[in-house]
Records
---
Amino acid sequence: MDKYEVAEILNEIATLLELKGENPFKTRAYTNGARAIEALTEPLDKIVDEGRLGEIKGFGKALQEKVAALVETGKLEYYDKLKASVPEGLVAMTAIPGLGPKKVVAIHKALGIDSLDALETACKDGQIAPLSGFGKKSETKILEGIEHSRNYASRHHLDEAMLLAEPILDDLRAHPDTIRCSSAGSLRRSKETVHDVDFLVSSREPERIIDWFVHQPEVTSVLAQGDTKASVIIGRKGIQADLRVVSDAEFPSALAYFTGSKEHNIVMRQRAIERGLRLNEYGLFKSKEETRDPELRVNCATEEEIFRELELDYIPPELREDHGEFEAAENHTLPRLLEWTDLKGSLHNHSEWSDGRGTLREIADAMSDLGLSYWAITDHSKSSFQANGLDEKRLRQQIKAIAEVNQQLEDEGVDFRLLSGTEADIHTDGSLDFDDDLLAELDIVVASIHQSFQLEEKQMTERIIKAASNPHVHMIGHLTGRLLLSREAYKVNHQEIIDTCAKTGTWIELNASPYRLDMDWRHWRYAKSKGVKCVINCDAHRFEQAGHLRLGANVARKGWLTKEDVVNTRPLKELWELQVRD
């Protein structure tokens, strides 16, 4: 297990101990241990191998033994027994917003509730509101949380699906019986969340591929297994993975079929019919009826050739949603989409000065080593006190500290620059946490909302428009505040905000955190048409989240964005020129 998987289990242990009413100091030891592990700047397995876990602050003998067992074996008997001793329903209840372990225990003790169904019934019967520390508003929020949890229970964040799929794809490519393979479905289209992960393989020995797939060590259960298809559950996250094996002649059409959205595929099939052909998962055929007769198959060795036969330019997978791609493909106006390697840096990130990890110099070294050109430090502002936001005095100290790091880098001949900045909270009236004089001293100003999400759409829109109109604000951060699979977006009028940004020259962020991916891809074509520039930002709180640049680029592609549409594809000198506001 890597450090994040270990930290996740330690946090789960803390939750389970709280649900059992254990000593809070014992519980806190696991929570603190998880934080310490996440903050490590060297591989956890290296520390374990060298017997240095005891050097980590707060790591006693028991915690050292448990972490070592997880790293070395991927298992922990103590965790398994503890998990078995707590009803699953109680753990599920802690995932409801506003229901921490203490409140779940209170409900359980008072009413004996140990499942989401029982909790829902109790809320509807008015049994929760009278309990100490709750009330009618809490009851309503719990019901909303239960509904939300059920709606998204089987969906997963895009990064989780990518992390699962890529090593499996690598192994499939290396399998001796594989001819071609690819991911498919919503993962290949870079949807913001996915239900399952689809794999497609061409092979002359499908049964061998299927047998290999269902016996992978990460597989926790096999849902179905046939001669050419299999479905399994993989990993602790319980993600469903589906594999289909076809002949190599069928591979291009199968890949197109299992990649496109339902709406996209309907149009593709209709275009084939209009040309006297039949398109299905088995091929493109010279037939008016459904068939898989190889004698009637049009020879298409690739997806590109299928599109060509249907008189279309090749449509990249991310665009296959029936959102205008067919008209563009007919008229040869499909854009050359952004590549993640075009990105030079990220303009919204955090450090240990607020709620991030890493010193300024550590961050500069890490990002320079990745080959990036610049990296903005935009720690939270003072209103985000829960995130250790900076006040005026600390922000000016940080500006000076960043300048000192940049001078060190220049003296050492390192072609990299940290940019000074802030993620300034937008108040309910649209004003910002800092006055204009201080904002003017910064390289980058991100204006974001972190509280008062309950405002009506008109108020929220006006609030953001006022912030976007401030001449010192370079961009609006995570426009709708959504947390995918966790918190719904607050309502805003996207068109009004985009129109304002077009007039003021304000950029809009595509926050590449897998929990946000905000602004949503569906609005970028309009923004692009108005000339509004995108900034793909990691919103990184630790070094590894620099990888979010790739995730953001995938979603930007889905929004039809090119290299020219994204400001942080520019070298630093050109970036300064783009900052000039009317």
Note: The chain has a mean pLDDT of 95.
---
Amino acid sequence: MNTETRNCRNCKQNFIIAPDDLGFYEKVQVLPPTLCPNCRLQGRMLFRNFKTLYKRNSDASQKSIVSMYPPDAPYKIYDHDEWWSDNWDAKTFGRDFDFSRPFFAQFQELLFAVPRFALMNTNSERCEYSNITNGSKDCYLIFGCVDDEECDYGHIVWESKDCVDNLYIYKSELCYECVDCLGSYKLIHSQECENCVESIGLFDCRSCTNCIGCVGLKQKSNCLFNEEVGKEGIEKFLAEHPLTDPSTISLILSKQKELRKRVPQRHFFGSHNKNVSGNHIYFSNNVLNSFDVKVGENSKFVFTGRKTVDVYDSSFSINIELGYQILTCRGNNIMLSHLCSDSSDTMYSDNCVNSHNIFGCAGLKNGEYCILNKQYPKEEYFGLKEKIISHMKQTREWSEFFPKELSPFAYNEAIVNEYMPLTKEEAISKGYKWRDDIPFSTGQETIKYSELPTDPKNFSADLLKQVLKCESCTRNYRLIDREVNFYKNTGLLIPSMCFNCRHARRMGLRNKRYLWPGKCAHCGADFETSYGPEEQKNLNIFCEKCYLEEMG
């Protein structure tokens, strides 16, 4: 098979389909894509709302609940316990397939009929204000968390404990305002670090302890802006620049930023890999054009995944073996589906759990041999499935992900607007929905930020009664008991911005999920990097070989 160049039917840009890609599509029996990888990614992320939450009533009990769906959403919304109860069965909404109509039109009608859970909190406890959680306990405003405990305010926090205000951290504890950090403990305002302990303002450091404002160090202790100063030097700096002074963190990060311009920078962040491309890939083999992968093999176009094997075009999915065009899924042989967990041999399905051999289903629990939620004998199921696939090929629906019209969310509600932002005018011109009434409050503040205690020792439960005003967007926000104790125990000030603005600031620190051509600043070797052209001019970006030789 030869490499093919195709033109994306959406953005009209050319994209490449490599021979290995064609082999994969043949293996999973789908047609090669008509959209480029970026447009395919955009189409999937439109279906995921992580952190836009609403107050509404349950359609089962009419009690007030917190939901990712607004009150006017055209769906039946149940709270967690109601959805998981045995009081209803998704198969009662089953229907025959109509060969005179397109598949997606029939599937949308099923989506409107079958109840959806208000928030996705699978195997989680006391995570009522978090969404898309799995195996987590006592987490608050954590979105996309896996196996976490007592973590607050964050996005993609996995296997971590007692962490506050983080983005893409893994196997960490007592971390604060960290981005893309792994295996770290008591790390503050740091980025791209692994196995670092009790440090502040680090960038791209490995196995460092009690360091401040350092860049690119490995197995170092008591370093201040890359100079060894001993324990006494660190204590002296913190005595002169205490964390209770709002200017201290700004000072540390500004000096770190200047240091980055002088110190060689790696073109790719990841470790324990073989034959990978993209960024933030760890413990993986043959994972290409992918970002934010923890343990992967023989996969491509994976965006945020853990334990992905033989997977193409996956977003926010874990523990997947053989998958294509999937969003927030877990299981084996899942194709063109959304929110399907602990399932196998699943196609074109949404929000199904522990179901196997299903096609075009929604809200199934423990389903098998079902099409549009109607159960069939095994032989009849496979025969009808093939007829529907032939029909979808004629209607040109086959192998395409769900169209944007089926998304429950407006563009600015969905996670897509954080990774691929559009203005309201741009979104509407491209046929996306937009909401102007996303809830927030202003003008209800009860205290000025300048009137708050500046000594963490004086933080008390009285702070929980106060309503604050974000210094960035002016919207109101409040504190919870656990975070106040966290600031008190770590000697940190109360944040002056609301969670959404803090999250946006962290998102702005990450490189884009895009690869540009680059050249090593040391040897001139070609590579692909997530650093854009302007960043390449301002930083000394090295290839992996030169970086390791220079930095150790």
Note: Residues 127-270 form one domain.
---
Amino acid sequence: MYPIVFNNYNRYLINYMEIDKKYFIYCRKSSEQEDRQVLSLDSQEKILLDLAKTDGLKVVDILRESGSAHVTDRKVFSEMIIRIMRGEANGLIVWDESRIARNAADGGMVVNMFDIKKLEEIRKPGKTYRGTPDDKFFLTLLFGMSKKESDDKGVNVIRGLGAKADKGWLPSGAKPGYMNDKYAEKGNKTILNDPDRFPIIRRCWDYLLTGAYTPPKILDLLNNEWGYRSPIRKSIGGKPMARSQIYLMFKDTFYYGMFEYPVKSGQWHKGSHEAMITEDEFNRAQYLLGSKKGLVKPQIREFSYTGMIVCEECASAVTAEERLYVRCTKCRTKFSSMNRDRCPKCATKIENMEDYKILAYTYYHCTKNKKHECSQKSVELIELEKQFVAMVEKIKISERFKDWIITYINEINDKESVSRMAEFSNLDGAVKLINSRLDNLLKLKISPKNADGSMLSDEEFMAQKQSLLKEKQVLTDKRGSTDTRMVNWMDKINKAFNFATTAREKFATATITEKKEMFNLLCSKLFLKDKKLEYYLDIPFNYIEEAKKEEITMDAVIETDDIAKVYGNLEAYWTQNPSVLPRVLRWTQDRFPPFITFRAGSPSLCEISVY
């Protein structure tokens, strides 16, 4: 019989067997990449309860937690450590060592609890750790490996995001109006246009670029009239856009195809997504919003004509500002109330003035951004409005003239439609002929007599086929575009002359937005020089202005019945008047869609002329 040798390990086992062991079951899972393959909390709990039952372990409590172990101060974990230190338990049952810690501080604290005899055992399926030197070494090693794995993943994620940005894809995900391609291969996710939201977000930019709409007004249209709601993802989404988000959107370079990554790094990338706007449109938007160096600031005060007028001397924008004045009730001096609490002449305090009034004046002036020494003076809104009214008066026509001119242009259109229909018929016939030639070409290609390609080789077949298809596409495009232009042109005629009839009355009662819309329709450019407004009216209003200079009977201000007594039948007079019809016909030639003439007997079916 061999003698029993009591070494240090034997003594540890004897002492360990005498300890009353109580266990906490600790389950943890997070949504991070490292936990994608980890069992759910319910699954962990079931496996660990079965383990405790099989091994006859006394479980004091079951603790569950959702959160990352990369950082310290996990709430449930911290409470568990405190309870172990109090002696409520001296053992842990976990699904895996990584559930305990992925950072050096927590891992070191658990190993130290073995040293101070507060923790006696950690169990997991298939493995048990006790306070032996080897077990503590392996635990320390495993915690360190978990820490390194987490750190490596962090570095790899950053590297991967940088590589994605280099390819032109925004790492942070899609912006309003766009969507992530959920069907793309993992690691190669792209950004696509959101078919439901892209058009209405683009409409937001269009409205902003008119200069007639502020972000709050656009936001109201977006949410309440166009029905924008954010994409639904799990438990979030389906909400209207917030006020702060629309300002962020309007200063985001992503929409013209550029983005900075990492943010504030100075590293700019050209996006591979489809840009919603151009860079020029983005810069104009920043200008309209009062931006400096791309920073968008909400507009508190809205003016009627900002963003519409340019200084003719230095080409800088014309802006507006409101100045408040007080008229002293004692000496009648008018002075600015900004930073003043008393009259500069008689020193009477404003608070001591009886029935004083605050006078508000709006002035338009050059911003002098392009030329600081610009000599142009400011002009008061009242004077500017008088010039706008005079502009509107120049294109105002009578209801009677409007009815006549629209009728006359419709008659021209009806006469021309006969020839257009003939041209369309020729085009349709030409397309049918091409289809017939394509059929004959195919029959020849597949004919048994052409089995060896002696009659029509593959190269000849493809060349002739491509040529015929090209001719067919040209004719089809001409046919469709002429129809579209005709409808749009006639619609513009009606809108333009109806506007010219009622423009003066509408201007008198128009809101700020409506006034901007009116002048965007009237002219494309407005200049200010020596307090005078200069402009170039767009078609057809420039023709109306020219004709009215020579023909007073077009004017709505003059009673047409009185004029008719002098001129007789006005409609007949206008038809014969060389001051009216030549201009109308000239405008018709400028704006009317070109007619397509098929040249009979042409060597090529694609030979068409436009006149």
Note: Residues 309-386 form one domain.
